[in-house]
C-alpha cells in the first residue's frame, strides 16, 4: 500500500486549477495536512512527476505558440517596413520621372545662362560702354540691376540643375540601402517564423506520439481484462486468475469495460442540473452499500473540483466494494494511510485529491501511478464500473 500525501499538491493548485470551487480547496487542503502528512515521499514524487509531465506538455505548447506569436509579429513588422519603403520607392520613381522630364529644359536654361555669363565676362568693354551710355544716374542703376538679374538668374539655373541631379542620386542611394536592410530583416524574420512553426509541429508530434502510446496501453489493458474474464468463464480454464490485488490490499475481480474510453461529462448543464443528474445516478449505483445515500456528496464535490463524478465511486467499488472492506476508517479508496471521521469528509478529500493529482479523470498513466503492480487490471476495472454509473 502507498501513502498519498496530497496536502501540498492541493495547497499549490487549489486556487488556480478548479474554477468551480465555492468551498475553497485551499481550506480543504489545509485541513488535510494532518490527516495526509504521513505519506511516503517516493510515491508522491511519482504522482507529482506524472502531473508535471502533463502540465509540462501544455506549458511547452504554450511557450512554442508564444514564440510563434512573437516571431510572427516581428515578421509582420518587417513586411510592413518593406511595403512602406516600396511605397516610398514608387513615389520617388514618380519624382525621378518628373525630374528627368524637367532635366532637358533645365539643362537648356543652364546652358543658356552659362553662355550669357561667358559673354558678359568676355565683353567687359561693351559693359563699360553700356554704363557710360546711361543718360543719368537712374539709368545707370537700372542697367546695373538688369545685369545683376541676368547673372543671378543664370546662377540659379545652374544651381537648380545641380540640386535636381543630387536629389535624384541621393534619393536612389538612400532608398536602395533601406530596402536592402528591410528585405534582409524580413527574410530573417521569415526564417525564424518557419523555425518556430517547425518546432511547435515537432512538439505536437511528440505529444501525439505519447498520447497514441497511452491509448495503445489502454486498449491493451481492456483487451487483457476481457481475455482473462472470458477465460475464467470457460469450463476448461478453472485455474485462470481473474482477480488482482488492489491498492488497499483487497482482492478484486478483473472487470472488462465495453470500451477503453470512459466518455465525457457534460459540464454545460449548470450546477443544479449537474448535481441533480449525477446524484440520482450515483445513488442508484451505491444502493445497499455502506456508501448508500452519498450520491449528492460525490456530485457536489465533483462539480466543485471539476472531477469526473464517476471516478471516485468507481474506485471505491474496486478498492473496497463500496466501503464494505476499508482498511482505515471511512477510507474506501486505498488512499494512503488516511482515516476520516465521516463519509462526507472522506469523499470531499478523495475527490479533491483526484482532481489535484490525477487531473480529475481516469487515464492509463494515472492507473500506473495509483496501482502500479496491477495498473492494467485496475484501469479496466475502474473503467468498467464508471460505465455502470
Indicate the multimeric state.
Answer: single chain
Largest sheet: 2 strands, antiparallel
**Tally of individual helices:** 11
Number of strands: 2
Q: Please identify the structural class as seen in this structure.
A: mainly alpha
Distance between the termini: 27 Å
Order of helices and strands: HHHHHEEHHHHHH
Total discrete domains: 2
Major beta sheet, strand line-up: 1-2
For the CA atoms, what is the radius of gyration? Answer: 43 Å
Uncertain runs are 1-52
Strand content bin:
under 5%
Structure description:
The chain has 389 residues and is mainly α. It is built from eleven helices and two strands. It has helices spanning 7-17, 25-36, 41-122, 124-132, 137-233, 271-286, 295-305, 311-320, 343-358, 364-370, 375-388, and strands at 243-245, 251-253.
